[in-house]
Specification:
Blueprint (H helix, E strand, L loop, with lengths): L1 E3 L1 H9 L6 H12 L3 E4 H12 L9 H10 L3 E3 L3 H7 L7 H15 L2 E4 L2 H5 L5 E3 L3
Parallel strand pairs: 1-2, 1-4, 2-3, 4-5
Length: 132
């Protein structure tokens, strides 16, 4: 199982060259095995970024989510276990989303594709740099 963090999901969807070869290969293999996934929190985070005008999306984000799921990306809903493992974030912030996504990857035993250097240095989480 592979979990994309929010930035990796956006890079993949946009076809960005910032998504590195190693990450693309891992994503392709996971997709072919029906093991490519995201945390439901990523869709919420994208909506917040769009509201904050940190990103621009001309379409309907609800429809975009359905398109991602229809294309074969699996969605892991955030449940009590994931939220309890995310509580160290404190007040709602960007860190909360990162922690929810991390807890999701850990719960499902997935490799996390991320651009987050802090996460990439952590030994407790199996991760791949989205830029490589």
């Amino acid at each position: 199982m592979v979990v994309l963090d929010t930035i990796s999901l956006l890079l993949l969807d946009s076809g960005s060259k910032l998504l590195g070869l190693k990450a693309r290969q891992l994503i392709k293999r996971a997709y072919q095995r029906d093991e490519l996934s995201v945390s439901a929190a990523s869709f919420l985070q994208v909506s917040l970024w769009e509201k904050e005008e940190r990103i621009r999306y001309a379409g309907d984000l609800k429809q975009w989510r359905l398109e991602m799921l229809g294309a074969g990306i699996l969605e892991h809903p955030a449940d009590g276990t994931i939220f309890m493992n995310s509580l160290r974030s404190g007040p709602i912030s960007e860190k909360l989303f990162k922690d929810i996504i991390l807890a999701t990857a850990m719960k499902v035993g997935a490799t996390l594709v991320t651009v987050d250097d802090f996460v990439l240095r952590r030994k407790k989480i199996k991760s791949v740099n989205a830029k490589t």
